[in-house]
Amino acid sequence: MSTLSPKERMAIPRVAMPEQAAARRVTNFNEVNQGLEASLAVREAQRCLECRAKPCVAGCPVRVRIPEFLARVAAGDFAAAAEILRADNALPATTGRVCPQERQCEAQCVRGKGAGQSVAIGWLERFVADWAQANLERPSPPAVRTGKRVAVIGSGPGGLTAAGELARLGHDVTILEALHAPGGVLRYGIPEFRLPKAIVDAEIENLRALGVQLECNVVVGRTVTLSQLRQEYDACFIANGAGLPTFLRVPGENLKGVYSANEYLTRVNLMGAWRENSRTPVIRGKTAVVFGGGNVAMDAVRTARRMGSERAVIAYRRGKEELPARIEEVHHAEHEGVEFLLLVAPLELLGDDRGWVRAVRLQRMELGAPDASGRRRPVPVPGSEFELPCDLAIVAVGTSPNPLLTASCPELATDKDGSIVVDEATLMTSLPGVFAGGDIVRGGATVILAMGDGKQAAAAIDAYLSTT
């Protein structure tokens, strides 16, 4: 418990995150947020009011014991804080960087109600995770083994979380990853300046230390079938994401210079096109236009800026208040010179006589009545069409499930969108012993929601294995 009175804690202002200057960071892929010093972390943790109701925990999809770990940080006992985090969260250094805390745990913080500012839970999570990585031994596998074998399909956040939870419970876990390097969207989707690959590698090594095995270049549905895995393993968890890009369905999307955000970010992140003298081909346009307003769109437009685009534009069909991206990412993009062209919708991508994109024809929109999502529906403004010159266009309007795995296993129930159907409580699919979670069930969602599914599925798999 803190020795400070509630009044003293309320008087402490929220810490500011040190960050790389905008003019400098657009010239490199180094991490933007620089992390907190120990003294600042302690002071920020002392702002916690130690609420009895603990609403922040309810706001966390993986149910981290937030007040407990904050109390340890406030006392300067970083090792104890790290043990709490490691027990509750398989990827704390990752979630401390990319989790939308302002809409989850921090949104529930009592200090943030009204005109107040919530405790910087995410920044403190990052501080503790980074401190543990530098100062503590890696975790050890449990002494007691169950002898049960579990296959985890996909090494993204959901799969990694499930693997870590199951390994701690004494099961033998093997992750099967289709790509040549593990991490899923953490590696191919999120840019280096937001989530360094060294962080992803370190968190994966922590899982290996628990005994998790990892096999890359295994495409379930192609190199091995789900039926074969069911014969070899006692249970399976499908967490292969939703990697099939959604397009605009407007003329000109087949022009050269037009990418899906998936392809563009994969070329830059996983294949290293951002590195000097890289042999990975990627277009470096002078004017880049990114369609969409979510985190992926922000990642793409900020990447294009760093790849040399003199003008980088977000084209979004709603207003700024409706942007689904993290507030921090929007602010960072603005500081980096990204233009926000709001209330516009693409009608056509226009090409030159060599088949390269040269412009996009847009139509201005206005907001009408709310649609099924609860957001006001964009309505076209007649006669408002105009052209925006560009030589790089990136589509970041969502993804859908890749049918490769499900098509090879027709007995696995899916919905009309191709997402796997699961029991809400256990995440078990229509096949006994086969569970699924993350984007392959939800559609495109956040890292932390996929991790929540991984944790939920691990508990259900453990219960299932105890009865088989």
Which characteristics define this entry?
single chain; 468 residues; alpha/beta; Fumarate Reductase Iron-sulfur Protein, Chain B, domain 2; FAD/NAD(P)-binding domain; five-stranded parallel beta sheet
What this model shows, in words?
The protein has helices spanning 6-10, 22-25, 38-45, 55-58, 66-74, 78-88, 92-98, 105-108, 121-135, 157-168, 185-188, 197-209, 226-232, 261-270, 295-306, 327-335, 404-407, 439-442, 447-465; strands at residues 149-153, 172-176, 213-215, 235-238, 244-245, 258-260, 287-291, 311-316, 339-342, 344-351, 357-370, 376-380, 386-389, 392-395, 399-400, 434-436. A hairpin with a 5-residue loop joins strand 10 and strand 11. The mean pLDDT is 95. It folds into 3 domains: 6-135, Orthogonal Bundle (Fumarate Reductase Iron-sulfur Protein, Chain B, domain 2); 149-243 and 400-465, FAD/NAD(P)-binding domain, CATH 3.50.50; 247-397, FAD/NAD(P)-binding domain (3-Layer(bba) Sandwich), CATH 3.50.50. The chain is an alpha/beta fold and 468 residues long. The two termini are 44 Å apart. The strands form 4 sheets. Strands 3-2-1-4-16 form a 5-stranded parallel beta sheet, sandwiched between helices. A 5-stranded parallel beta sheet has the order 6-14-7-8-9. The radius of gyration is 23 Å and the shape is globular. The protein has 19 helices and 16 strands.
